[in-house]
Amino acid sequence: MPELPEVETIARGLRQGLVGRTFESVIVYWPRQIVAETPETFAHRLKGQSIKNLRRRGKYIVFGLSVDVLLIHLRMTGRLYIAGVETDAQEDRWVRVVFGLDNGGELRFSDARKFGRLHLVVDEQEVTGKLGFEPLSEEFTFDAFCAQIGKRRGVIKPLLLDQRFVAGIGNIYADEILWHAKVAPQRRVNTLELQELTNLYRAIRATLQDGIEYAGASISWYRRADGAVGEYQERFRVYGRGGKACPLCGTPIVRTTFGQRGTHFCPSCQS
DNA sequence: CGGACAACCTGGCGGC
DNA sequence: TGCCGCCAGGTTGTCC
Question: Rg for chain A (alpha carbons), in Å?
């Protein structure tokens, strides 16, 4: 669920309520989601640390703390939100970690499927070191994209999903990007022509940027930090639209399984 | 190196 | 209404 636009939206929504706050208590209800720490060490180390900044890298939410770095990956069904103070602290049966704050509020990590992961490290590179380009950054130029893609073999859709190539794209945005670029998901990378590479590069940036502008896509579990749904699902051109008309040419969108992932594309526009 | 697949988990949904 | 099987946005490790 949460891909780059969703994670970015959550990080933006949390920033104001969290930067400057200090963790006063940490309760872990599902220890297996804490990576390389015993829950006791994790909680103990966090206590007393203040949040200096809050940002996103790939699909990770990164908390720069006074001493360490806390990284949270929401995987499929993870949510982060602030409860208490003014917000209603509603019942949530999927809360896995609660971070008590110095203003009486609490940051909750909620995750129905328990796939999300929380890392506490000294150097964030321990977690994000292998990630590829940050696709909306200035470093991700067309030349850099071409240089990197020139080193790769295989098929384009799995490559878009490879976080070591470009960080932040998931299954939904991969399908949407490929539709915008008019490239079929099963195209081999080494057969892409210059115009197609240009289209792909532009589509990666434009589609992710669009996702952020519409506050992400709420298919099932994703919610913004304030609990509101995103709007980008209204803008889907192919994802979840199998059998419906391609918005460009009217041809029915094909829904198939490719590379073990649900895949949607227009057989007429994309080649 | 690449592809296939299982594993990690639970909830929602369609079908009967 | 109830139960069952299947499907799901992600990532990692293993096997061939």
Answer: 20
